[in-house]
Specification:
Blueprint: H1 3-28, E1 33-34, E2 45-47, E3 54-60, H2 65-81, E4 85-91, H3 100-111, H4 116-129, H5 134-143, H6 148-157, H7 161-174, E5 181-184, E6 187-190, E7 198-199, E8 205-206, H8 209-217
Parallel strand pairs: 3-4
Antiparallel strand pairs: 1-6, 2-4, 3-5, 5-6, 7-8
Length: 218
């Protein structure tokens, strides 16, 4: 083989590899594409059985309006599929949401006293009502019967700031770019997917979470 032909062959191999990488990244940015996400473990905030056949990981932001909608989808998934689905919540506070970081920390301070999911629901209710604030987080803690002194000290100290940041970094590595983003058995679904099937903005019929999960259970 001539030197010129070898050069052309090397260039062709590089181009093929580059095209393959672009295609792979493109697939990961579409609903249903495979993505590398940290597996569910006992340290996660979990609803359901750790070894359930459907593993659903949700990266979310307590100040995100679309995340309020998706929280309702999560409840419907839990009601419909019960112990067949493990649902995990992970933090992904967006920089454009000034209350999101502290809200995430407030949920962790509540988790410290065994009330993560109760605070989760409170925070999304606060979001919907437009009342997210430090003082509201403290009122929520009182409503949930938490130790006010312990909660307030935890929140003011920023005790869980590193945990929240670490989860966001893990989300970045898994391909999360916005909220909510969910992973169902490793498949990535960006956006607030409804429970039922829906018509996408481009006019295509899309599966909702009910059918996405039902098909995985077949």
């Amino acid at each position: 083989m001539s030197k010129q032909n070898k050069t052309f062959l090397v260039i062709a191999i590089i181009l093929i590899a580059a095209i393959g990488l672009i295609y792979f990244r493109g697939k990961n940015n579409q609903g249903g594409g495979q993505a590398l996400v940290k597996s569910i473990n006992a340290a996660d905030h979990l609803k359901g059985r750790l070894n359930a056949p459907i593993q659903m990981i949700v990266y979310s932001d307590f100040q995100c309006p679309f995340c309020v909608e998706f929280a309702e989808t999560m409840k419907k998934v839990e009601e419909e599929f019960k112990d067949k689905v493990a649902i995990v919540f992970r933090h992904y506070p967006l920089s454009g949401h000034p209350e999101a970081e502290e809200a995430a920390e407030a949920s962790e301070c509540a988790a410290e006293q065994g009330k993560f999911w109760e605070m989760h629901d409170k925070l999304f209710a606060d979001n919907a009502a437009g009342r997210l604030s430090t003082e509201q987080f403290k009122r929520d803690a009182v409503d949930l019967g938490l130790s006010q002194e312990q909660f307030n000290q935890c929140l003011v100290s920023g005790k869980y700031a590193d945990k929240v940041s670490a989860q966001k970094a893990e989300g970045d590595q898994a391909g999360v770019t916005g909220t909510p983003t969910s992973f169902v058995n490793g498949n990535i679904y960006p956006g607030a997917y409804p429970f039922e099937d829906f018509i996408a903005s481009d006019g295509r019929q899309e599966k909702g979470m009910k059918n996405i999960i039902s098909e995985l259970l077949k």
